[in-house]
Design a protein that fits this description.
The protein is built from 26 helices and three strands. It has helices spanning about 10-20, 30-50, 50-55, 70-90, 100-115, 135-140, 150-165, 165-180, 190-200, 215, 225-255, 275-285, 290-315, 320-330, 340-360, 380, 415-425, 430-440, 445, 450-465, 475-500, 505-515, 520-530, 540-560, 565-575, 580-594, and strands at about 370-375, 385-390, 400-405. It has a three-stranded mixed sheet with strand order 1-3-2. The longest helix is centred in the middle third of the chain and has 34 residues, at about 225-255.
């Protein structure tokens, strides 16, 4: 927080001229010492997590790739978070300003959760088909992601980073082997998905590698002589570091790891898995709700949304049960009108144009950060969901809505294009993330924070705004929106079911297909994502339901004084935070409105 600080004497003098003898106590000013602590923390953190720093536009460590699977690195993290936790506790929270108390609470929560996370044996499963360095490195190296390629130094930075990849991979293999010895191994279907992903990076001709992308589009700032040197260096790095490392990881997983991969589905099947899941639930939902409570909420929401779907089926005059309606939505050619990927992207651009006039009524603040819609890169499209990649507040990189399009002719409009755009793009992730990053009044650990329950909860909440934004005029797009909400409700059931109730992968896939319109391939990719990322899928519905409860509560409390635009602006300007802390800050806001 950067406010002006008055001296105690001047503050007292001013107060004396303004107030009577029965003056109310002065609210505490923001603490410069606490602000310094937060600044030091963020500065030091960037060095510890250089890939994170790059994604946030801090380019000081763009040449570094830490070997984050080592014991030494885990110890360094533990010491780092413990040190800052102890420094925070030296402050008397009661004497802090209201804003600083919020920051204090979030920071305390963050340090405690990070330390708890380091006790989990997840390091024995260093990457999956859905996330981890082998995937993110390719996105960075393609030249279209977070890693900048604008100067000669940028190109050399990337070479330094990629040269550290073989050492990282050797540690990953060592950690996978440790997991094989202790029984902390991944499910076999996930390993089978990883093999083609790794093999796709093995290209005999460097010019055909995704990592060659930056060489094909040198900016004018890189002189011709340097371009020649860098071209040769990139070819060498692809031949000698990139390709052999991906091949080595592929061969290890195929020949050694796959035979030892487990046939069970949920994380509870591995030693310590029950504790890992409890932590994951707390981490992703930012609540103390038990897996069983979440499971019951899921069952209740699935039942409610099915009822809404039945109404739309009746409205369009479909004869047959709900599952037959899903089949019709999945297979009728009229719901697949596209011929090219560009037509799909243009349909999303048209949604943006349609909602633009109504956004102004619901949001007083809009981001300055640019926004683009792009097709997901081919190498990861098969396992990818639609997603948002954050932009940079200085305008040097836009927020990007990535749409995976494997076959445009099979891209189905009834899966919910309108609600997907609201969620992943505007006013979902783009508004929330961009406004948060642009808020320079916040300490950086809050400006660049990501709490899935808040951020994904907000994005799912924005899907409910479709009607107010001029969308959902067509019953099939309303069905798509219900499909999207049903998808998040199903997650509560299958995630908890697989990880605590012995629900199998096949049972989870079938449950998803029984309760929403979805194809086999998409349902399988989704269920396997939850297998790879226990608990993450619980965040969406948990956060959405909390935001809806808050909106409803304040509408009742404030009556005519409730302003939806003000509610949205307040929620977003405070930034992503654990849900309990968000509720406290919003309660304070509501009290001010009275």
């Amino acid at each position: 927080m950067k406010h002006l600080f008055l001296s105690a004497a001047l503050a007292a003098a001013l107060l004396g001229t303004l107030m009577s003898n029965t003056a109310a106590p002065v609210a505490p000013a923001d603490s410069p010492a606490l602000a310094t602590l937060f600044e030091k923390y963020w500065d030091e953190r960037a060095k510890l997590y250089p890939l994170e720093a790059t994604s946030q536009g801090d380019n000081r460590y763009n040449d570094q790739l830490p070997n984050d699977g080592t014991v030494a690195y885990r110890q360094a993290q533990q010491q780092f978070f413990q040190r800052y936790l102890e420094q925070l506790r030296k402050f008397d929270r009661a004497k802090l300003s209201a804003d600083d108390q919020v920051s204090y609470d979030i920071f305390l929560y963050e340090m405690q959760m990070r330390l708890e996370g380091l006790k989990q044996p997840t390091w024995m499963m260093p990457f999956t088909q859905f996330s981890g360095l082998p995937i993110s490195l390719a996105q960075l190296g393609a030249g279209s992601g977070n890693q900048p390629f604008k100067t000669t130094q940028d190109y050399d930075n990337w070479l330094s980073r990629v040269r550290a990849y073989p050492v990282w991979a050797d540690t990953a293999i060592s950690n996978f082997r440790r997991g094989m010895r202790t029984g902390v191994v991944m499910p076999r279907p996930l390993v089978e998905k990883m093999l083609p992903q790794l093999q796709a990076m093995v290209t005999p001709d460097p010019a055909k590698s995704i990592f060659y992308g930056p060489v094909t589009k040198f900016p004018a700032a890189v002189p011709a002589a340097e371009q020649q040197r860098l071209t040769a260096a990139y070819q060498q790095a692809i031949r000698e570091q990139v390709v052999p490392t991906y091949q080595k990881l592929h061969d290890f997983l195929k020949n050694e790891y796959l035979p030892k991969a487990r046939t069970t589905t949920g994380i509870s099947a591995v030693p310590g898995g029950e504790g890992m899941y409890r932590y994951a639930v707390k981490y992703w939902t930012t609540t103390n709700r038990t897996p069983e409570q979440i499971y019951q909420t899921g069952l209740s929401e699935v039942k409610r949304i099915r009822g809404e779907m039945e109404k739309i089926k009746a409205e369009v005059g479909f004869k047959g049960d709900l599952n037959a309606f899903f089949t019709y939505l999945n297979t009728d050619p009229k719901f697949m009108p596209f011929k090219t990927p560009e037509e799909v992207l243009n349909a999303y651009r048209a949604i943006q144009t349609k909602i633009d006039p109504n956004l102004k009524k619901m949001f007083g603040r809009v981001p300055k950060t640019g926004f683009e819609i792009r097709q997901t890169e081919a190498f990861r499209a098969a396992s990818a969901s639609a997603q948002y990649n954050r932009g940079l507040p200085d305008g040097s990189r836009p927020g990007i809505f990535y749409v995976p399009i494997l076959d445009a002719t099979k891209y189905n409009v009834t899966r919910g294009m309108e609600n997907l755009f609201l969620h992943e793009a505007i006013p979902g992730h783009h508004y929330q993330v961009a406004l948060q990053q642009e808020n320079e009044k916040l300490p950086k650990f809050r400006r660049f924070a990501f709490y899935s329950a808040f951020s994904e909860g907000w994005a799912l909440y924005t899907e409910s705004l479709g009607k107010e934004l001029g969308l959902y005029t067509d019953p099939y797009q309303r069905m798509g929106a219900l499909n999207g909400e049903m998808h998040r409700a199903i997650r509560l059931v299958v995630d908890v079911g697989m990880h605590t109730k012995n629900m199998t992968r096949e049972e989870a896939i079938q449950y998803m297909k029984d309760n929403r319109s979805i194809g086999d391939q998409e349902a399988t990719a989704e269920i396997e994502r939850y297998m790879a990322w226990p608990g993450q899928a619980l965040a969406y519905k948990t956060g959405q339901m909390k935001i809806m409860v808050l909106r409803s509560k304040y509408q009742k409390q404030l009556g005519a004084k409730f302003n939806l635009s003000a509610f949205h602006d307040e929620l977003l300007q405070n930034a992503a935070m654990p849900l309990d802390i968000a509720e406290k800050t919003m309660n304070t806001w509501a009290a001010r409105q009275k």
